[in-house]
Amino acid sequence: MARTSPTQRLDQAARNLLPALTTLGLGIVAILPIGLPLWGALAPPLMLIAVFYWSLARPGLMPPTVAFLLGLAQDLMTGAPLGLSALIMVLTQWVMRGQQRFLVKRPFLVLWAAFLPVVTTAILLEWVIYAVFTFHAVPILDSLVRLGLGFALFPVVAWLVLIPTHRLLQP
Amino acid sequence: MAQRSALAQQKAVLPWRTIGERFSSVILAMAAVALIVLGRIDPAPIEKTRASVADFMAPILAAVQRPIGTVRDNLALSQGLFDLAAENARLREENVRLQQWQSTALALEGQNKVLRGIVNLDPAAPPITRTEPIIGEPGGLYVRSVLIAGGQHDGLSKGQAAMVGPGLVGRITELGRWSARVLLITDINSRIPVILEGTRTHAILAGDNSPQPYLMYLPKAATVNIGDRLVTAGHDGVFPTGLAVGRVASIENGEIRVQPIADLDRLEYVELVDSAVQSALTPEAAPAEERNFLGVP
Q1: Residues of A in contact with B17 (CB under 8 A)
Q2: If you count Cβ atoms within 10 Å of the first and of the last residue's Cβ in chain B, which end, N or C, has fewer?
Q3: What is the CB neighbour count within 10 angstroms for residue B186?
Q4: Does B216 touch chain A (CB under 8 A)?
């Protein structure tokens, strides 16, 4: 094989940015007013799905720093307390990296099942941290709806966005 | 050779990896917690950052939204074609009703002007409004807010009231150059001085992120009935007086919940009301604006 040309390297670098970019893109989708009632209020955790997926599929392209920055971006976009999603994303990446050996290259259903405890913990943790720092308990029911929505949307997001992008990463 | 290409591939990954390895997850998690605490102590710099991020995002959001808007409009149009006749009948009826209201309102406005003259009150400045489309519905469970495609550049200012149709939506809390964030009246941080229209009782309308905000600091002796209308009191110096806010929806164990008049779940645009407005009624205003400020449901 010949030396990689600058264009090839540029191409590879661009591909390597894809996990971060898809995650950011999903964050934007979550705040778009798409005309569904309560879409904005429930804000399905689309970015969490992406961070979960990439931490397993391409951990090298979703290091803690990137997870942190993506979390910050989500906080800045949504107006949530700055640092809240950053914390959740860093923890998710951390935990998933530890589980990567067990979960990588498993059937899709296993991945989906593994997402349930992750999204549950993430959303409950978010609720608790928010309550502790702001002395306000927001209705837990909303959190549960959001949790269910995140779990239900996992295959949609994975099949429409993440898996095709993942294929693009491995030419 | 194979080794070489692997090396090249690693090199391409390297930027992320080196940064990634320098900071461990623990330090980043601590940094995140520190940020949350700092944000509680002094939210001003974070608000500023947020406004600039919103400015940066505004064109992206507006561009992405265009096709969505088209699809949504077409869906609404095709849906509308089906019940055109019924809709037409309803609108005719509503128009008659609104015309009656208009004449009532104009009569009252005239009477009001005379009374203002008698008590020597300052004449009302005409309300100035701008309509801005909503480009983002950020929030999630912790914040109830919308991003709009107008900012300082468009003459908006912090604290301005935002309405949609006949009802109050919220106020501008973060102002960028090209975009602004409107905090909805249902947000946990929203506190709005209101008056119960029938009894002129003052209270504060407080949000708690649920769809129905509640009334605070209502005098114990006050009588409140389900269906009572609330309007802005305006004595916070931020809002004009008399903007329709909501109706009392439920009274349970002393907790009074208010149903906002504006449909906050389906916002597409907001109208920004100039803060200097004293009266919400203008006989000269365009019909669309009149409907909004009469507060007729």
Answers
A1: 60, 63
A2: N
A3: 26
A4: no
CA pair distance B237, B178, nearest whole angstrom? 25
Alpha helices for B83-173 (secondary structure H): 84-119
Q: Looking at residues A148-164, what average pLDDT do you find?
A: 92
Nearest CA-CA partner of B144 in B213, B222, B61: B213
Q: Quote the number of domains for chain B.
A: 1
Average pLDDT over residues A140-162: 89
* Cβ-Cβ contacts under 8 Å, A150 against chain B: none
In a domain, B117, yes or no: no
- Domain assignment present for B12: no
What ipTM was predicted for this assembly? 0.86
**A 22-61 → B contacts, CB under 8 A:** 28, 31-35, 37-43, 60-61
> Directed axis angle between helix A46-57 and helix A84-103, to 10°?
40
Predicted confidence (pLDDT) per residue in B208-218, tens digit: 888 899 998 88
Q: Which of B168, B189, B192, B172 is nearest to B267 (CA)?
A: B168
CATH of the domain at B237: 2.40.10.340
Angstrom distances, CA of residue B59 to CA of A99, A151, B49? 39, 31, 17
Of A4, A31, A64, the CB nearest to B20: A64
Q: Which residue of A has its CA nearest to B56?
A: A77
- Residues spanned by the domain of B284: 124-294
User: Which whole-number Å values give the CA distances from A59 to A133, B19, B261, in the listed order?
Assistant: 31, 14, 48
Q: Which of B20-34, B49-63, B125-139, B244-258 has the lowest mean pLDDT?
A: B125-139
CB contact under 8 A, A82 and B46: yes
Rounded distance between C-alpha atoms, residue A58 and residue A93, angstroms: 11
pTM of the model: 0.70
How open is the CA angle A24-A27-A32, to the nearest 5 degrees?
130
Tens of pLDDT, residues A10-48: 888 888 889 999 999 998 888 877 666 666 667 788 999
> How many degrees, rounded to 5, is the angle at CA B217 between CA B216 and CA B218?
95
Residue B60, chain A, CB below 8 Å: the answer is yes
Residue B100 counted as domain residue: no
Which residue in A has a C-alpha nearest to residue B174's C-alpha?
A79
Q: Is residue B171 part of a domain?
A: yes
Tokens of A7: 């264009």
More confident residue, B185 or A36: B185
CB B2 to CB A1 under 8 A? Answer: yes
| Average pLDDT value over all residues in chain B | 78
B5, B17, B23, B28, best to mutate vs chain A, most A CBs in 10 Å: B28
B188 touches chain A (CB under 8 A): yes
